[in-house]
Amino acid sequence: MKKKDEIKFRVITKRYAEDDRVKHMQDFIQHGTTTTYDHVFRVSAIAYEINHVLHLGVNDEKLIEAAVLHDYYLYDWHNHGDHAHGFHHPYIAEENARRDFAIDDDVASMIRTHMWPLNLFDVPSSRGAWVLTCADKISALAEMREAHNQKSQHNKAGVPAT
Ligand SMILES: [Fe+2]
Ligand SMILES: [Fe+2]
Fold first, then answer.
1. 161 pLDDT band (50/70/90 cuts)?
2. Parent domain of 113
3. What is the 148 CA–ligand 2 centroid distance (Å)?
4. Separation of CA 133 and ligand 1 centre (Å)
5. For the segment 108-150, what is each residue's pLDDT rounded down to a tens digit?
6. Average pLDDT value for the chain
7. What would the mean pLDDT of 61-85 be, rounded to a whole number?
8. Ligand 1 centre distance from Cα of residue 66 (Å)
9. What is the CATH number of the domain that holds 131?
C-alpha cells in the first residue's frame, strides 16, 4: 500500500482508537485471546487494504467507521446467555452505533449485514458492505487459528489448556 494511504488509515483510525466508548470494547474477548477492540481494528486494516489494493473506491471514512463499530454490541458474548449471539449482535451493534456515533444509513447497513450469510436475508447491499463482511471473516479465521496455535503450544509444554 502507498505511504500516503497508510498515513490516511492512521489518521482516520486514531480518533476512534482514542475514544473511550470504543475503548470499552477492550473489556470483551472476541475470539481466543483477542479483544473485541483489537478485532475491530484488525478488521478495519484488512477492509482498508482490500479497498485500496483492489481499487474499489469505497469511501474510506465510512468503511472504517463501519469496521470499527461492526461489533459494537458491548457485552461479553461468552457469558451473555444469548445462544443466538451470532444472529443478534449486528442489530445490537447498529443500534448502539446509531445512539453513540450518529452513523448514517450507509454505515448502519454495513454493520447490519456483516454477518451474512449467517443472517441470510440481510445481504450486503453496497461495495463497502461486501468488503466489511469479507474482512471480518478473514480476521476471525486468523484469530481462531492464533488461539488454536496458542493452545497447541501450551499442550506441547505440558501446560493444561484453559
Ligand atoms: Fe460480528
Ligand atoms: Fe467481527
1. very low
2. 3-156
3. 18
4. 9
5. 999 999 999 999 999 999 999 999 999 999 999 999 998 888 8
6. 94
7. 94
8. 11
9. 1.10.3210
Q: Does 161 map to a domain?
A: no
In a domain, 94, yes or no: yes
Residue 118 makes CB contacts below 8 A (sequence gap 6+) with 86, 87
- Closest-approaching ligand to the CA atom of 40: 2
What's the total number of domains in the chain? 1
With respect to residue 162, please indicate whether it lies within any of the assigned structural domains. Answer: no
Report d(CA 131, CA 142) in Å as an integer. Answer: 17
Give the number of whichever ligand sits closest to the CA of residue 137.
2
Q: What's the 157 CA to ligand 2 centre distance in angstroms?
A: 31
CA–centroid distance, 76 to ligand 1, in Å, is 12
Q: What is the pLDDT of residues 127-136, one digit of tens each?
A: 999 999 999 9
Give 125 Cα–ligand 1 centroid separation in angstroms.
17
Mean pLDDT calculated for residue range 87-102: 97
- Is pLDDT of 76 > 70? yes
* 143-117-67-33 Cα dihedral, nearest 10 degrees: -20
Secondary structure element (H or E) that encloses residue 62, with its range: helix 60-69
| Strand ranges inside the chain, DSSP E | 29-31, 34-35
